Amino acid sequence: MTAANRRGFLLRSAGVTLAATAVSRAALAGLPELASHDSADTAPPLAPASGPHYNPVVTLNGWTLPWRMNGGVKEFHLVAEPVVREMAPGFTAHLWGYNGQSPGPTIEVVEGDKVRLFVTNRLPERTGMHWHGQRLPNGMDGVTGLTQAAIEPGKTFVYEFVARRPGTFMYHPHADEMVQMAMGMMGFWVTHPRLHDSSPHPAIAQVDRDYVFLLNSYDVTPGASVPKTSTMTDFNLWSWNSRIFPGIAPLVARQHERVRIRVGNLSMTNHPIHLHGHEMQVTGTDGGPTPPASRWPEVTVDIAVGQMRQMEFVADAEGDWSLHCHKAHHTMNAMGHDLPNMIGVDQRDVVDRIRALVPGYMAMGGNGMGDMSGMAMMPRPPNTAPMMGGDGPFGSLEMGGMFSVVKVRRDQPAGDYRDPGWFQHPPGTSAYEWTGEPPPAASHAAHNPVNDVEVHAKKPDMGGMPMEH
Questions:
Q1: Residue 18 covered by a domain
Q2: Domain assignment present for 261
Q3: 210-225 confidence digits (pLDDT tens)
Q4: Model pTM?
Q5: At 66, is the secondary structure helix, strand, or coil?
Q6: What is the CATH number of the domain that holds 120?
Q7: Per-residue pLDDT tens for 381-413?
Q8: Residue 341 resides in a domain
């Protein structure tokens, strides 16, 4: 089945299922109001309208799910459904997600909250919902076939439990995982600590900005829009919250603010997340906050599959600081992996022959792949992101995939998450081209240094033992 036919099959199947088994208005009357969001912009934090105060998180290129209070219970409504996600300007993917987006909206509660979650299935197949990392009754764990029956298309299930411990968690299906998670079904959950008498939590510090995002990966053939769900290792799109650079929003901070970044990994490999210009500490995992005495400074934090790492730093250095996965091919888009290394190969003769058959043919890779960043406007299959690019103040960034910028400004207003633009470097603080005399050519010795080495060998003393010949 071609990518186009498969896309049509998925969307047609979803439509048929909805028409045949959609939940009736009467059945939905008792559910919390359905909130949906399809913008790829970073939504402002959702401050609590009632209950204990907390500092809400900011979901990178995402949003937080509203709730209602019902008899002392905090109620949420998640809808699993096909979605269209803009992964970068000019490139969209047909995914599965929740409430209009992939990943789904972030859920925020407070330690000790009683929660009730309605999960409605608008997919063409059955699903379930696992609350990754939560302490809860076994029957609420959400493993289809083990702890509950599947949520059939058109049906709604209810999950009820107490948010027992503070921390950062995730949610995702435990039903047909290879397909459903590869199609983008996942989301973040944050349980804030319940503070008593304004006393600080012994292991969870107050921060000024609190960002969250998920690491995920896709294999989308250039020109197509539906991921290949059978891919296990050879992905060509590495994303944060189903966005790829240059579509990933910056993380903005005021100078000297304390910043927390919560990162969950639901991709198929580990990711070493590296921050420029600052030192971080891992202050929490999906198992809870780390003891303060166990922390140490890092500039790169490796996050394994199924893990969450909560990192904190003081944004004391002004500037535009890179934040990215340090696996080099994870900061590129739509990249073919079966290409030979052509660096140093003289391709002029073969290029002339090919141009006789294919006018306009261009040889690539003879001097590295950096030139690709300048070819963003060259013809490529429709609905395909450039392999690398992103315009910066000094030209192309030559990046893609898992890359963003932490923008620290002394005059950024508190609570303002708007992009301040590019940093204006003070005079004399930016690298510059040398325009003086070129350095002298390096001299090389005419002789082979190996010939100058004299080697002395001595047989070991075997203690009088006879040696075989």
A1: yes
A2: no
A3: 999 999 999 998 889 9
A4: 0.82
A5: coil
A6: 2.60.40.420
A7: 888 887 767 789 998 888 999 999 999 999 999
A8: no
